[in-house]
Amino acid sequence: MKDTKIKCIAIVRLSALGDIVNSAVVLQFIKEFYPDVNITWITEEIFAPILSNIKEIEKIETINLKKLKKKKSFSLLFSSINKLKTLNNFDLIIDMQGLLKSAIVSKLLGSKRHGFNKNSVREPLASLFYTTTSDISYKSNVVKRNCFVVADALGFEITESMLLNKKAVFPITKTFIHSSKKRQVAFVIGASWDSKIYPKELVAIVIQKLQEDCHIIWGNEEEKASAQWICEHSSFATLAPELSLPELIEFISSMDLVIGNDTGPTHIAWAQNIPSITLLGPTTSRMIYETPKNIGIKSPSEVDILKIDKLDFSIKKITPQEITTQAKALL
Known about the structure:
By secondary structure, the protein is of the alpha/beta class. It has 2 domains: about 10-165, Glycogen Phosphorylase B (Rossmann fold); about 185-330, Rossmann fold, CATH 3.40.50.2000. It has helices spanning about 15-25, 25-35, 50, 65-70, 75-85, 100-110, 140-155, 160-165, 200-210, 220-230, 245-255, 265-270, 320-330; strands at about 10, 40-45, 60-65, 90-95, 115, 130-135, 185-190, 215, 235-240, 255-260, 275-280, 295-300. The chain is globular.
């Protein structure tokens, strides 16, 4: 049931990029049911730019936990705590992350806090910091979990139909123009773990089979070197430009298809309603919201979502032919 007393809320989702992308979809639904509510998003400083143009967010507040961890400075810690305490004017704080760090941040923000209960998170102690909780299996789809905890806190429901018919999550302020008449395909070749990365040699084979304009997205020097290797081994591959987070959204939004590992830039395609193929090795399709045009291809390995095996390199067993067949169907 809608709570008419709620005028100002805080959403806590600190990291990582893919998780923030898969969380931000809730904003349009909150505004549908609470059109006048004021939304503040609390995030890690490095991820603030990706949220900067979302019209549903009134304010973005940042905290630099990585810097705090690295510098181990008490003065920096106290200044960060004091900053959060000064924001204490929320009718409700919703922790979408469910970790101790996000729960502690939520505690500093105000007295009425909602999050996952002890059976629904990887760090059960986090649930002790909330005044109300939601019960949903940790093994559930991450997008559905995000939607459920927010909708449950605010007294409404986010349905499958709403997700399938969602608006693009991130607004576009600039459009990338491609001169070629071929279909535009982006490959996301990086990931947070080596075992989540589809081998560059197999990416080159997929590109040769597709014979479309293929742009290789990279995020650091190591990924850039791999991207350059792919470009040297396929006449259809082009190195994508260096992109800021807002530019990354715009670039991906200009594609006909995105193929990539289980990582933030690949998830942006789903957020923007762009067809996508997510390649899954040590993780499962739990990490994505599958639609007729956003699909996952899983390697043959068995995955325990409660105990991810970061040494599971089975992603390389996904064949280029399988990817190509699915890509051509989506194109």
